[in-house]
Amino acid sequence: MKKLLRIVGIVLAALAALLILVFLCGTLFGGCAARNYVNNHGEDLLGRKVNVDGVGVNLFTGHVKVKGLTVYEDDGESTFAGFDTLDVGVSLLRMLGKTVYVRHLTLAGLDVEVLHDGNRFNFSSIIEHFQQDSTDMDEPEDTVPSSWVVSLHDMQIVRGKLNYTDVQRQSHWGMNDLNLAVPDFTIGGSENTDAGLELAFDDGGRLRVKAAMNPANNYFDVTLGLEGFALDQVRPYVVNVANVDQLSGHLDLEAQAMGILDSLMDMNLKVKANLNDVAVSDKELGTVAKLHHLGVDAQQIVPGKNVYDINRLEVEGLKMRYELFADSTNTLSRLLATQTAADTIDEPSTDTVQAAQAAAPAPLRLRVGVLDVKGVDFTFVDNTLPDKFEFPVTDLNLKATNLTTAGNNNARMMATLPNGGKAMVDWEGNISDWKLNQRLRLSIKNFRLTELSPYMVAYFGMPFSDGVFSFTSLNTIRNSQLKGDNRIDIFKPNLGEKREDVKPQLSLPVRAALYILKDKDEKVMLPVPVSGNIDNPKFNYMKLVWKTLGNLIVKVVTSPARALDSMAVDGQGNMFIAVDPKEHDFTSEQFYQIDKVANLAKMDENVVLSLTLATRPGASDKEAENHDRRNKILHHHLKELGVPEKQFTITVAEPDKGVKQEGYIVEIKN
To answer: Are the CB atoms for 609 and 649 separated by under 8 Å?
Structure first.
């Protein structure tokens, strides 16, 4: 870095030397001789052809005026840099006291063309020219302070123009109406230094910079203003890390940085920024995100101390689309591109890494006075399923006040779901120690189950054909212990036909469970409690929910007696169809009960009926014959009802003197 700064210093010194040469020649030989000398010998100094139209010198007032200076490219024909007029006033007498005192310096019509192609610039040959003449580039720097003082006053660049072209990135920055004002600039003295810069970008936007510095203590105060800056100008640089095809939008920025040069990370920043009408798109993905407005008002930011004091953070009109793809990629991973070797960032040195590891980061101190997010539309798309799942959440609004890492906080979010559904989230909790205390309440109302059909098909092989879903979830965390109380409320849930083209991931009797769980009004109420230690590496909230829900479905289907009207129950809670051992056939009531349990198997292929005839010891031959005939009638009846043989078994248990009533114990197995 130091070597680079020395090279840049050499180039600037060369240009300054050229101007001094003009001044000296004009002083000694007159303006005409100075012009001729520079035109004939400028190439020896810069390594480039140089042309000056005219030189005016007043030795008594220390005034020099240069008109029409041009520095050419290596080809000697194209223009690298030039200006219309340079007007300089110097105090010659002060040089006797080792002080270079410039009363004024005005440079008008500066025009510079910078070309960057890989590792070379169009001024690289100038640097190389001076490197050849400099034999001490790698020698230790002279640390003895100079006794000379350079004091510059009333320096101005007016009506300047700078064009920068990055050939490899095909990026062009045109900066015109460049005006630089430096009222005072001192090197080697104790006077304060201040400067101001203004320019306009060809593609839109204006830049204003004001800077002041105290050389005695290296204190600086820099104010930067950016108005209407077009984001498309940075797209060629964004493509190094992201596959961004188009980038639009405008940035307005007011920022102030104050601090000490020797401790930049401890500088104090104040920022007001507004980002408007942003759009990011990719050739493959299309429009990834749009943003109407992002506003930030930061009262204080101190990076080195991890302090972020933000008065207001507002987001309005954000529209995003996030997709999961079958090849395990997603919108974000496809948007991000791998850096090329030429664009990789230099690896930090071992000393730098060790120093960073040794320095413990300061604890985060965050305050957001007002967080206001409104009008957000977010679409989630899952392409990994047999059927594409696309779920839009619209009109999302989030509000919070006085968010801080110093204590508990609260926030509320509301959003609209497809077909008129609503979602609301209330949060209370601690940010800095989030495992200590959290309370999150989620409420979903009027959600159409058909929206979840792609997941039902993937997991269970059949879609939802109807149903309205409501969901409430209250989750608390106290000292890393999670307790979740989830309640599902469904009205008229119905499933469509089984998909033969899909192999389901789970084999659960969902259809039968819904049939059993429905009350007389076709409502289903399900509690889904979840608990666990979030510090456990295997902890996964959604897996716990699915596991709990799956266990509940199995339990409901395998113990459905209470849900089926007019069904007797044995001592184990199983359905029971009582029979008379003296009868070889079933009564109408018994057939009704058989039909009800058969209906479960008919509607769900994951249900297997187990009908076990329980008898007492000492049965007569006639009773044994009745049992056998009755079993055959039962087998025939189930087949007539359309129950596949693989979905039912009929057996006779060993006689048991503890049996009070003979009959069939009906169990449902999965």
So the answer is: yes
Write down how long the chain is.
670
Q: Residue 129: phi, psi to the nearest 5? A: -60, -40
The mean-pLDDT minimum among 164-178, 302-316, 371-385 falls in 164-178
Count Cβ atoms below 10 Å from residue 346 Cβ, excluding itself: 5
What tokens does 502 get? Answer: 């899909």
pLDDT at 468: 94
State the amino acid at position 416 in one-letter form. Answer: T
CA distances (Å), origin 103, targets 64, 82, 607: 12, 23, 98
Query: Quick one: tokens of 582?
Result: 């003296």
The string of pLDDT tens digits covering residues 26-64 is: 555 556 766 777 788 778 777 888 888 888 877 777 788
CB atoms within 10 A of CB 260: 13
Region 374-391 average pLDDT: 95
* DSSP conformation letters of 343-399: GPPPPPPHHHHHHHHHSPPPPPEEEEEEEEEEEEEEEEEE-SSSS-EEEEEEEEEEE
**Could you tell me which residues come within 8 angstroms of residue 312 by beta carbon, excluding any fewer than 6 positions away?**
295, 296, 297, 368, 369, 370, 372
What pTM value is reported for the model?
Answer: 0.73
| pLDDT one-digit tens code per residue, 454-477 | 999 998 899 999 999 999 999 999
